[in-house]
Amino acid sequence: MKTIVKSTLAFALALGTAYGAFAADFTKGTVKKVDAKAKKVTLMHEDLKELEMPGMTMVFRVKDEALLSKLKEGAQIEFVAERVDGKLTVTAVK
């Protein structure tokens, strides 16, 4: 019986961890500047809760060049920011 409980708990934890990897919080922001050549964007954003960062204006790397086409100066967006190789990076936009 203990083995079944341990296996079930381990599975639930693994499932929760895997699900958490895909359940990112989107943050509202305004695009201030796009530097397509450098693959960077300047955003004025609300609090980044997952990164424990207050709202401010700052420069982010853009992980995927395809995201740059969604970023136009003045646009209101929702985005996901993560630390990738130690750099703050936009990894999703809607």
Automatic annotation (TrEMBL):
The lineage of its organism: Bacteria, Pseudomonadati, Pseudomonadota, Alphaproteobacteria, Hyphomicrobiales. The keyword Glycoprotein does not apply. InterPro entries: CusF_Ec, CusF_sf. Pfam families: CusF_Ec. Keywords: Signal. The keyword Oxidoreductase does not apply. Residues 1-23 form the signal peptide. This is Signal peptide protein.
